[in-house]
Design a protein that fits this description.
With about 500 residues, this protein is mainly beta. It is about 15% helix and about 35% strand. The protein contains eight helices and 29 strands. Helix 1 packs across helix 2 and helix 5 runs parallel beside helix 6.
Length: about 500
């Protein structure tokens, strides 16, 4: 749904490519910090992993012995998966979970996250989920020519641009990058003269998305390990998970192909790559039963020359409930010794620090949020002399509190922009606003207008002709604007308004 417009999520600027949320930037380029072995997994869990058996999702992560997992179709379950695996670190805004600390950039719409394998030693992950339609192998099976197939990829080519801009920026700053995800397109390395007829729909095609990624200097990790696409097809779609309702993706699925992939910077060595999937499939290297989704996953072992990051303060999660114990990691030069924290503006409204804890030798600390006011919380790491090294932020909500959504006024004229504000949103990658007729059930009714929130926990937006859906201007009538979770139709909040002639 709506994935055709995902490319509109903003590209990042180089100023935020290295460092944590609200970090202090030294302006120096990172230097190589030596190689480290990391197992990175790509995993489309299909509708939050709940269709078949959610427990199979963390089971698959454990079976793959992964260190970092890029999820697709998380549907708000990113941090739930991390918790079930036993990991503290989850980034809802990129649907990435990790056994290592994750460092978010200042721009919540930036498509990357940094993984701190050791304090201050990082690499970048860019999690991609490109539009699912039109599906090239389907069109090839129906008789489309190479020219027609390439023309059909223009939406995905547009959608991959922010990821490639981010990858180029990170690599330009000396940070090795992994671009990973569900690309919903085949690889030009798999559709060749040698593979023609290997599967009924396959013939030579220079698939432009994977070609553009290769042109950006990134390497297809699976094909580094298995350069022969005839002997090692590595098929990831469709997986024969148990039938749910009327949909059985294995026997009834679209033409099989390798559309879930991992690309890495040229200086990253690829040690191994394995397909994780259902028992009984010839494509599966690591089997899990029951398999939870319609895609197989891929786990790749990498030898990564880590880079030194800019100073950072990184909470394990951007949003916590009051009373939670929050883990925070900090790094910088000079080495930070203390971590100050306080509600934004200070508990007394003056901007003062409300608490200080000492950082461990590895730069970690925990904060008890029981006495912290709800809302944004500022984090400040300082050295033994009290000099600020880096800063960051996270949000605290009341336990069980719902997100809040409001409009500027109750009535608008036809064509008037409608101002919307929200707070306490989970900050998922694909949280979105939808405009519906008053009282409509989003699971049944169709939206009039929609837009993504940019993964923001607090934010505002004008509903106008920039919204998707084709329903602008709204005719006179009664409407609700809904905040919905992570590309699903799970309602988080709604606010009514009226349009008058």
């Amino acid at each position: 749904m709506r994935s055709w417009q995902r490319w509109r999520i903003g590209a990042v600027g180089l100023a935020v490519l290295v460092g944590a949320t609200a970090c202090t930037d030294t302006g120096s380029e990172p230097a190589s910090a030596g190689p480290s072995t990391v197992r990175v997994m790509q995993f489309n869990i299909e509708y939050g992993g709940t269709l078949v058996d959610f427990d199979s999702v963390p089971s698959a992560v454990r079976a793959a012995d992964a260190d970092v997992v890029a999820l697709q179709e998380a549907y708000g379950n990113t941090c739930k998966v991390a918790k079930e695996v036993g990991w503290a670190y989850c980034d809802r805004r990129t649907q990435t979970i990790s056994r290592y600390p994750l460092i978010a950039p200042t721009d919540p719409e930036a498509p990357h996250v940094l993984v701190a394998v050791a304090p201050g030693k990082v690499f970048g992950v860019i999690n991609v989920h490109l539009p699912s339609a039109p599906y090239g192998p389907n069109r090839a099976a129906a008789g489309a020519t190479e020219t027609e197939l390439i023309a059909g990829e223009k939406g995905r080519l547009k959608a991959i641009e922010p990821a490639l801009e981010s990858a180029n920026g990170l690599q330009g700053d000396g940070v090795p990058v992994v671009v990973i995800g569900d690309f919903n397109t085949p690889s030009h390395l798999d559709w060749t003269g040698e593979t023609e007829g290997l599967r009924d729909h396959v013939f030579p095609v220079q698939w432009p998305v994977t070609q553009s990624i290769q042109d950006a200097g990134l390497v297809d990790a699976y094909r580094e390990v298995y350069p022969d696409p005839v002997g090692d097809q590595g098929l990831t779609w469709p997986a024969s998970r148990p039938k749910v309702g009327s949909y059985n993706p294995g026997p009834a699925g679209k033409p099989a192909d390798r559309i879930d992939m991992t690309f890495v910077s040229a200086d990253i060595a690829v040690d191994s790559s394995e397909v994780v999937g259902e028992e009984g499939s010839s494509s599966t290297d690591v089997a899990v039963s029951p398999w939870p989704g319609d895609h197989r996953a891929v786990v790749t072992q990498l030898n990564i020359p880590l880079a030194e990051s800019a100073p950072y303060v990184a909470p394990a999660q951007r949003l916590s409930e009051r009373g939670d114990i929050v883990e925070v990691n900090a790094s910088g030069t000079p080495t930070p010794t203390f971590l100050g924290f306080g509600a934004s503006g200070g508990a007394d409204g003056t901007g003062g620090v409300t608490g200080v804890v000492e950082l461990d030798a590895d730069g970690s600390a925990v904060i008890d949020t029981s006495s912290i006011a709800t809302g944004p919380v500022t984090l400040t790491a300082s050295d033994a002399d009290g000099t600020e090294v880096a800063s960051g932020m996270f949000w605290v909500s009341e336990p069980g509190a719902d997100p809040q959504l409001s409009v500027g006024r109750g009535k608008y004229g036809v064509g008037d922009p409608i101002d919307v504000k929200w707070s306490g949103a989970p900050g998922n990658k694909w949280d979105w606003l939808g405009v519906y007729r008053r009282g409509a059930d989003p699971n049944v009714a169709y939206y009039k207008l929609w837009a993504y929130t940019g993964a923001s926990i607090e934010g505002s937006m004008m509903i106008d002709d920039a919204f998707g859906g084709g329903g602008w201007p709204l005719p006179a009538g009664e409407y609700d604007v809904l905040l919905l979770e992570d590309d699903s139709y799970q309602e988080l909040a709604r606010a009514p308004f009226t349009v008058k002639r």
